[in-house]
Write a structure and sequence with these properties.
Strand content: 15-25%
Number of strands: 17
Number of helices: 14
Oligomer: single chain
Helix content: 25-40%
C-alpha cells in the first residue's frame, strides 16, 4: 500500500490546503497535483466505481462527486486558500497553483460544465482539463486523445490514466458564445427548465433572452430531434440506459423510427433548414453575408472540434483546390472559426464512415446568426454539446434570433492520440495524401438548483459587435 502511495505522491495535494489545519513538514512538491471531479451518475455504475477508486488512490479530499459538490465553489475556495498561503510565503502552495491540473469524469455535458466553470471564474492561473469518457458520445474526450469508450475503474486503469495526465500537453481551445432572443408569449414560450445547462435565461422588456456557450458544436434539425427523443426516453427509464452499447443501439433505433434514414419520404420539406431559417455568417470581422443552404439539407452542424456523433469528422480535410477556390481550411480548434456542415439524411451521414468522407461543407465563419420568422412549423430541435431541446418558433409576426460568436479560449490537456489540430502547431498542416478527393457529394450552390454555467457568471460581458436587440 505504501508503495502505491509513493508512486502517487506526485498527484497528491495535502490536507492543510484542501480543508485547513496546520502545515506539516513536506519536503516533496507534487509534480502533477490534480483535482478530480466525477459525475457518479454517468456511465451507469462506472461513475460511482471510479469515484471510489480515485478516493482510495489519492487524498479523498481532492476527489469530488459532482452530485454533491458544485465545481465552481470547490475551485473558488481552493484558489482563495492558495492565494492566502502564497501571501504568507508558502512555496508549496505556489508550486501547486502553478502545476495544478483538473480531471473530470463524465460525458460531453459534464466536461463542458467544468470548462465553463474554469472560464467563468477568471482564475489567475487557469488549470488545464483532462477528460475521462463516461458518456454516450464522448466527442470532446475523443478530440483530445482520451478515447470514446468507457474506461476501466480498477486501480491499475486509474493509475495509467493519471500517468497520461502527467505527460499530456496543454492545448488551447476556442469557446463560443450563444445568444437566443425571442418575444415573451403565452403560446410557444420556451421553458428555461427544458433548456440545456449551458444556457441561462434572462427576461427583459417583454423578451426572453438566453445566453451561454459551447465548446464542441451547435446543431439544428433532424439529428437534434433524435437526440431529444433519446434523452426523453432516458429520463423516463433511466434503468434501461446503463450500458454504453445499449445506449448507442437505442440511438440508432430512434433514428430509424423517426425517419432519419428515409427522410425524403417521411420528413416534410417544411422542416428542412432552408425553409426554417435565414442564416447569416461573418466571414470577416464586422461583415455579415447570407449563407445559401441547399434545399435538401435537414440538419446543420456548427463545429468547433473535429469530433461529432461519437467521433466522426463531418468537415474532413479539404483538398487544395477547395482551399484555393472556396477559402476552406482544415479544422483547427484555436483559429476562431466554426466549420458549418449540412446533412440531407442519415445515409448522407454514413459517408463519414468512409475514408475521407465528409458532409456538405457550407462555410467557415467567425460567427453565425439564425433568424426565424413565422412559417409552416411551430418548433424545431436544437442541440449544444450533446444536450438537446425543443425550440418553439414564431407563431405570429415576431422572430426568434440565435447568434453565435467567438468568446475566448481555455486550456485542455491532450494526449498524442488527439485528433484536434492547432493552427500554431507546425505538425498540423495536412499533407496532400491526407486530403479528400473532389467529391461529387459536395452539395453547395457555388459548386453545384442553479449551477454556474458558461456565460452566466456575474463577470460575463456580451462580446463587442453583438447587438441582437436591434434584430428582434
Amino acid at each position: 500500500m505504501m508503495g502505491d502511495r509513493d508512486k502517487l505522491k506526485e498527484f497528491y495535494i495535502p490536507n492543510y490546503i484542501l480543508v485547513g489545519g496546520a502545515m506539516p513538514r513536506i519536503k516533496f512538491a507534487p509534480s502533477c497535483p490534480v483535482i478530480v471531479f466525477v459525475n457518479a451518475r454517468s456511465g451507469g455504475q462506472l461513475g460511482g466505481e471510479l469515484l471510489l477508486t480515485y478516493r482510495a488512490l489519492l487524498n479523498e479530499n481532492q476527489v469530488f462527486d459532482l452530485g454533491e459538490k458544485a465545481p465552481d465553489k470547490v475551485l473558488h475556495k481552493l484558489y482563495v486558500t492558495l492565494e492566502t498561503l502564497k501571501f504568507k510565503g508558502d512555496a508549496l502552495a505556489a508550486d501547486i497553483e502553478k502545476r495544478l491540473r483538473i480531471i473530470v469524469a463524465g460525458g460531453d455535458g459534464t466536461a463542458g460544465w467544468l470548462l465553463s466553470v474554469v472560464s467563468d471564474l477568471k482564475l489567475p492561473n487557469p488549470p488545464p482539463v483532462a477528460t475521462v469518457p463516461l458518456g454516450t458520445g464522448n466527442n470532446l474526450h475523443f478530440a483530445f486523445g482520451w478515447g470514446k469508450k468507457n474506461p476501466g475503474t480498477d486501480r491499475q486503469s486509474v493509475q495509467y490514466f493519471l500517468n497520461q495526465v502527467k505527460t499530456a500537453k496543454e492545448m488551447q481551445i476556442d469557446s463560443w458564445h450563444i445568444i437566443m432572443r425571442m418575444k415573451t408569449s403565452k403560446k410557444g414560450s420556451c421553458d428555461p427548465l427544458e433548456l440545456p445547462h449551458s444556457l441561462h435565461a434572462f427576461h427583459q422588456e417583454g423578451f426572453q433572452t438566453f445566453r451561454g456557450g459551447f465548446w464542441n458544436y451547435f446543431s439544428m434539425g433532424m439529428d437534434a430531434q433524435i437526440s431529444y427523443d433519446f434523452h426523453a426516453q432516458r429520463k423516463l427509464h433511466a434503468e434501461k440506459f446503463k450500458n454504453q452499447l445499449i445506449n448507442q443501439s437505442t440511438y440508432f433505433k430512434l433514428g430509424c423510427t423517426q425517419g432519419w434514414f428515409c427522410a425524403p419520404i417521411m420528413h416534410p420539406s417544411s422542416r428542412n433548414i432552408a425553409h426554417l431559417t435565414k442564416i447569416m455568417i461573418m466571414k470577416r470581422q464586422g461583415h455579415w453575408e447570407e449563407l445559401q443552404i441547399p434545399p435538401s439539407i435537414r440538419s446543420i452542424v456548427c463545429l468547433n472540434l473535429p469530433s461529432f456523433s461519437g467521433g466522426l469528422d463531418p468537415w474532413g480535410k479539404p483538398n487544395r483546390k477547395k482551399v484555393q477556390y472556396r477559402d476552406l481550411t482544415p479544422p483547427y480548434v484555436d483559429d476562431g472559426l466554426l466549420e458549418i456542415v449540412g446533412f440531407r439524411d442519415a445515409w448522407h451521414g454514413l459517408v463519414l464512415l468512409a475514408p475521407n468522407g465528409h458532409g456538405t461543407r457550407l462555410a467557415q465563419a467567425h460567427g453565425i446568426r439564425f433568424e426565424f420568422c413565422k412559417g409552416a412549423v411551430d418548433h424545431t430541435f436544437m442541440r449544444i454539446d450533446g444536450e438537446p431541446w425543443k425550440q418553439p418558433l414564431p407563431i405570429d409576426n415576431d422572430s426568434v434570433v440565435v447568434e453565435i460568436s467567438h468568446f475566448g479560449q481555455v486550456s485542455m490537456l491532450a494526449t498524442p492520440l488527439k485528433r484536434s489540430k492547432s493552427v500554431y502547431d507546425p505538425e498540423s498542416p495536412v499533407s496532400s495524401h491526407d486530403e479528400d478527393e473532389d467529391s461529387s457529394n459536395e452539395e453547395y450552390p457555388g459548386d453545384s438548483a442553479e449551477r454556474k454555467k458558461f456565460g452566466a457568471s456575474d463577470t460575463f460581458k456580451i462580446p463587442d459587435g453583438i447587438h441582437i436587440a436591434r434584430r428582434s
